[in-house]
Structures are given as C-alpha cells and as structure tokens.
Amino acid sequence: MQKVLITGSAGFIGGYVVEELLRQGFKVVGVDNYSKYGPVKKSYDENPNYELVVADVTDVARMTELLMDCDHFIAGAALIGGISYFHTYQYDLIAANERIIASSCDAAIAAKKAGSPLKKVTYMSSSMVFESTDRWPSKEGDELIVPPPLSSYGFQKLAVEYFARAAKGQYDIDYTILRPFNCVGIGESRALGDVEIHSGNVQLAMSHVVPDLVQKVLKGQDPLHILGEGNQIRHYTYGGDLARGIVLSLNHPAALNTDFNISTPVGHTVTELAEVIWRKIKGADVPLTLIHDEAFEYDVQKRVPDVTKAKEVLGFEATTTLEDMLDEVIPWIQNAIAEGTI
C-alpha cells in the first residue's frame, strides 16, 4: 500500500483528491492549517487509511518528518480564491505562496537526502499560467513562450513550475506538473478572508462564477447580473474528474518530469453557463434577462486548454458534463445558503 502526503487536504480540490486516493487504496496523510475555511469536517475523516495533520506547510522540519515514509507528495497547499480574492490579496498571494512552495521543495529535498522512499513531487499549477496567452487552445510549453501572467497569482503559479524543474535540475527531485482548469464541484465554502462584493441585490464572498451565479438565481435575482460581456470562455471541469487525473499521474511512468493540462475539452461562455443554471433552477418557461456589470481587471477573456497530451500520454479524459456538474452543485449550494456557509 503506497503512502501519499497531500498538503491542502481540507481544501476544495484537495478534498476530491483525498477521496480518490482512498478509493484507489492509498494510505493518505493530509496536511492543512485550516487557514482558508477554518476547521471543516470531511467524509473521509474517520477512514482508517487517512491521517490528518493540522500543521503549517512552511514548517520544513515537520514536513520533512512526515515525508520520511511517503512514496508520493502532492503539493496542493496554496492561498487561492475567486477573482475578487486575486485583487484584494495581490501581495499576500504571491508572498505566502512562494513561502509555501519553497518550503515544500525544501522538505522534499531534505527527506530524499535522509533516505525517504519519495518517488516524486506532484505540483499543482493552474490554468492561470496561460493568463497572457495569444494562442488557443493553450498547450503544454506555451507558458514558456507567451508573455508572463499579469496577476500576482498567475505569476506565482508559473513560478511553481520553475521550482519543480529547478529542484529536479539541482537535487534530482522527480516531478509532475498538473494544471487544472476551472474546477467545479461541492465543498467550497466562504473563505475566512473573503471580502464581500455587491452584485446587484446580492452580496457575494467567493467570486467563482458557477457558485456565484447559482446563488444569485436561488436568491431570486432577476435580471441576473454577470461580470463583463458574458462572452468569456471557460472550461468548467468537475472536481472528481480532476482528482482522477491527478491520482492517475502518480505512478504513470510517462508522467515523470513533465507537465499536463487537466481539463474538459468542452468550453462554455459565461452567458451559456448562466442560461443553463437559470433553466435548471427556474425552468425553461421563465425568460432570462442579463445585466452586465463591469469586469475585474484580471478577468481573462479566453482560457481554452489543449488536452491532447493528457489523453494520449495518460489516457485521461474529463467526461462529466456541465449539466451533470450542476445537478450536484445546485442542491449543495441551496443547502449551504440555508446553513449560512456560503
């Protein structure tokens, strides 16, 4: 039974990854300091193959100790939020996330030197490395030739990839770099540091387009407010699909020391997304009217991944449709609104 350490295990994507790891028979050590949501309960908390360590990833000595009997390290911890979060915490995002990634690499290097069986580190990058791209779909390698990201978050995620390659180059720490695109699913709540913004008659504290639109429709907003013109293209990828891709890459020999976009090949405009959400909640007979609010500075207009490499090399495809994702997400958000957690 292989043992995996994953940081950010109480987070949004982290929760899906832990569930998939346990389902596939791994032993899992999760590390989280609860800085984003505060203490949260997870479905796997009592699983005998799961151990939660409440600790800070920047504690290199503690992280090194935890890695001493691990086969894999998924470096998933990071400060992350919606688009308003990118603007509110521009400095904190880059400063804190640099400390987190440097500490993660330091721990992996120290553990490997001390005899850990650690096979490699799996780094969670982001589609935001393609923030300034001028070519679509964005394929692996484009991040090295297009202009760097404009947001501090996107720039730091690009730096994560440089950390991965540098740790390999100098200390022979093998790696896989994965770039999720627009994760959608359940389990994301209001973050402790989120700043509320007004969107029409509704206050929001997440600024992720899917839960925000669902909230507004559920709360009766009509006309429905969206950011920008609504022609922004996103590839909404189900958290369970992302987790499958991440876990598949762990022991795949062709994933060693390379990078993959992990996403659905199907894109939607924000207007199309709003229409699907409206129809699912209101029904097809209620007409949808949109109001276009001013977009944020870093609201990238087009984020389209090339997923050929993941399909051909790993055999991975994200297959969950937007319709099916929303069938899971809408009832969950409805309950979260009632409980006041979103």
From TrEMBL:
Cited Gene3D superfamilies: NAD(P)-binding Rossmann-like Domain
Name of the protein described by the UniProt record: NAD(P)-dependent oxidoreductase
Domain NAD-dependent epimerase/dehydratase as annotated: residue spans: 4-262
